[in-house]
Fold:
Amino acid sequence: MSVVKATKEEKEKKTEEEEISEDLDLKVKKYLRGGAANFDDLKDKKLKGQLSHREFLHGASAKAAAKYEKWLMPSEGGYLEADGPVEKTWRIKQEDIRREVDISSSRNQHDVILPEFSPYTLAFTSNGQYMAAAGRKGHLAIVDMKNMIPRREIQVGETVRDVVFLQDQSFFAAVQKKYTYIYGQEGIEAHCLKDQGAVLKLQFLKNHFLLASINKFGQLHYEDVSMGAMIGNIRTGLGRTDVMQVNPYNAVVGLGHSGGTVTMWKPTSSAPLVKMLCHHGPVSALAFHPNGHLMATAGKERKIKLWDLRKFEVLQTLPGHAKTLDFSQKGLLACGTGSFVQVLSDFSGTQNYSRYMNHSMVKGYKISNFLFRPYEDVLGIGHSMGWSSILIPGSGEPNFDSWVANPFETRKQRGEKEVHLLLDKLPPETIMLDPTKIGTVKTARKKEKSTKKEIEAEMEATIEAVKDGINMKKKTKGRSKPSKKLKKRQEIIAKAKRPFLEQQMQDGQLSIKKQKISEEVELPKSLQRFARKKAAT
Amino acid sequence: MRNLLYNLQGKTAKPRDENVPSDDDEDEDEDGDLMDNGGNKLEDSHDEIEEDDDGRHVRMLEGITGMPSEAFEGKKKKNNVVISEAYPESEYNPTRDVLDGDGRISMEDLLGTLQKKPGFGKLRKIMDQMKKSEAIEAPLPTVIREKMERQAAYKISKKDMAKWEPQVKRNREAPTIYFDEDTDLGFSTVGAIASEFEPRTEFEKKMASLVYDDDVMEAHKKDGSRLLELNQVSVEDEKERHNRIAKMRSLLFRHEMKAKHIKKIKSKTYHRLLKKDRLKTAAALTEMDPEAAKEQAMKQEFKRAEERMTLKHKNTSKWATRILQRGLQVQDEEEEDEVPDSGILSLPFMERGLKKRKEAAEEEAKLALQEYEVSMKQLDDPSGAENSKIKASSGRRVFGAAKICAPESRDVIKTDNFYANSDSDDDMEAKENIFDVGKDGSSDMQKDVHVDSVLPNEFHQDSVFKSFDDIVRDPGPKTTYDVAIFASDKWRKMESRNKVDANSKKSPVAVEPEYNQDLQEPVKEVGENSDTESEGQMVDGIISLDPKPTYELPSQTELIRQAFAGDDVEEDFENDKQEILNEENPEPEKPVLLPGWGQWTRVQKKKGLPSWMLKEHENAKRKREEALKKRKDAHLKHVIISEKLDKKAEKLLTKTLPYPFTSKEVFEQSIRMPIGPEFNPATAVGALNRPAVVKKPGVIIKPIEFKEVNPHENKEDHKWSGQKQKMKKSKSDGSIPRKKMKKAEGKSKKVN
Structure:
């Protein structure tokens, strides 16, 4: 019996090991980024050897990374799970959650009522440590979210439409009635960005240090906040809009328009990269999944659509209004209308979003915008009576990476990070739909001019073809003499040759002309008529 | 020895050696020929007589020797063949039988004569040896021989080299070669070097024997402390030393001061005397010691030669000195004067302008100089100040004074012109100018100039006011115009529809709280849009915002508009797409005939367009369709993906496939993985970024040593060894990886 038991245990162990190895394999695959190309076709043995060694190293690296992820990640994200088929996760209320969670988490459920200056717009720093709240009527507040202490409050005495943090909490930009202002940590005005006009919505591209803004006339501006230079100034030509979001994957700015279209922009081109018709009514909200492949749009015609940005196709269409949309770090999608918040989820990983949680606020509170707080299971909601925050289990990333964003950042770390960010700043040209294309071979759009050799080969081929095709008719006396036939033959060949020769002549002349032109220093066109005419030699 | 023998053999066997007699042979032949030519007839006539003669001769021989006649037969026959000899037989002219065979000269014959000479035995021995090795083949020609030798040598060397192959191959294939396996850098301290010192020379050995003398060592060990005590110096000694040094120093200092003083003396006589003194002493020395004098002379000569070699005496010719004095400068000037052949400056009017400007500058410089001189004079004169006024009214001095005020007046006029032209609102500066003028106007001399300048100013102000009036009168159209520019077509359409509405609503909309705008439909937003500019003028900030927001239900018409808003959206989008497609791939023009061509008769008209035109058109059409099909958005009705090339982003792409790669896919796959420390665990970063050669600075790379390497070594082994290394590394820095890994993950999210 005991022997049998032992074998059983062994079997169990084995299965466990297999499971682990399978799990690891999955993770390794993720880190291998698509795997190596097929080297069998390579004829160069040296290159083959080098590449296979490289692949081996990459494999080892991926394996190590997978192991670290498997064993050293501190915590796994949790989420609400229904007990049986009867219980539904969306029936669970905030009060129910409050009873279950610890004190520090329950502190994240709160309402701040400030009706005098509302509605409020919110913004979080990338590590979720600080929140900026901007009341429409000029109230700007920076709140330390960990200690729940307002760090700085200022009253600008003007309409404030939007607020964003720049690289970290030390600077934030607020859109006021006429201009956009950048304030320092202490609420002291650092800059006034006058050339952007009356801005409606701001976004900060943190890897490029660009502040993107859309103004009342539908002009998209990109301002480099590290140098203070205007990088891009684009007229969208699609009218006024305040629906703007940055795709975190490739830093492409998405705009929603009244014509139901969504356009995507980069600072270095005046035409939209992509223009897609998403809705029949005006687009009311827009959000990008953190992995950059998924986009959610909401139209005024009561539809919320999920798009696959790799294929530009609809994945899912959901009914309902949404005044604002937001994806959490873990991919939960929140939609807000009126005083009602709905959170959708795809925990199965199939990108089939279904209802996950609901939350309705006190009647009369109108949601203006909301944001998931990074690295926390918290949704911050700005509404017409202040702001509030609710718990959405499973929304935030449980394992932070201190190299990317550290929720427990100290002052010194912040300083270091700022320097690193500035050193790693990406130039604005790197913004493109598919950033993996950087470094790849340029696709030749037009066929390059064929080389001399190729031309000659082509000419020979045509001549051969012509020679083969010559079919002399039997003609009346005297006209099919051998000499005449030969002459005719030569004529045909010469005719076939002519276009090639002409082409060559032209090229030669062109090159000579080019040389001549390049020898002289070119005058501006307006001054050319004054130039001395040289005698042709 | 072998060589010698070979030579001997060669000499005996070589046909060349036989050439010598053959020469003679030829001579003989020639002689014979001559004979033939001469005595052909003689032969014929004397044939019979000769036969008779021969018979008689044989008989005579028989009689004398008593031998049968057969013995003489051969001789006779031979005599028949060999015709008469031209010369008598001698050692220089051997007979034919000697040459032909039986009667050949053998070695023995030759040796016979040497029998009694000393060294004959030796020669004999060699001869015997030679006889034993009989058939010796002729050696091959050198070319072939050398070739064979080379081939053999190559075979051997190839074998020698081939043993290195696996080792070299392994090194070639290794991604990294290590040269730091045994890093014994040798001595690093002076002590270490000294400890290895071994005495070699006599002196060193002596020193070593003294230093390492056992007695000394022992004594040192025993009373080292006492020896230290002995090192003590008494106070008196130290004082004395100090004094001595001080004295030396003071002496030196004095000497130095004296030398300086002498050097400073400028008196020529003094130096002359000094020189004389020096010469005298030198002369005395030469007289005293001729050897030293000679040396001195040599030294001087050498110095002189050295001096001659320097550049100082290089350019001493007349031409060179002249060029050095002025030529180079002259050239420089010419260069300055030169006008470039091409470019803007070469234009004739530019040239003229340059010339003019230069002249003006020169004149100005001249004037400035004059002025300067005058002012200097004035300064020199104590009464200059009084004189200046008087002088100002007369002659030359007027010019200077006028010059002072003239530029000012010109300035003022200039600014006037500027403001008159511009309709800008910074007339403050102009006013300031006037004030300045007023202040300066107190001086009598410049008055008239300022009166002139004031007038245009007033005129200018008027114009400014006028323009202000214009602005105040109708600010409206301007703002609406702006909006029209920025708003899209759709907006404009709606605007035109609701223009009256918008105008009438103007003020209420402006006061309306802005957060209601989201409920309002586009039309209302337009109204707001057009009024944003005026909003600022009428109300300010918080005052404009209603503290109590009221929610108004949208009116019926608005709701209907909202419901049908998206009706024409799809069509619009399709039109848009078509437009963009046409822009990027324009549609080919339809073929048209020139009017009058092909229309003369009905037949031509019926035929229609020529076939080639139609063909071309069709081709162009097909091409366009293909291009459209290739687009990414060809199958996506609701998407337009721009195919425009971004020139700025082009620099981020590689222009051509880098060298060893032949396929694009392989290259792109090879660069897919980042190798930086942000994207990889710390354990893998080192291996990923290891250079091809790992070597410590200062390590000497020794030439390759032969090692037995298995040529069929498994590659797995390599890999395994690489892994082992990695494992070692991971042990060494176990704490970091977690962080790095996470970073890798985070970044991957961001970038990939």
The longest strand of chain A covers residues 149-155.
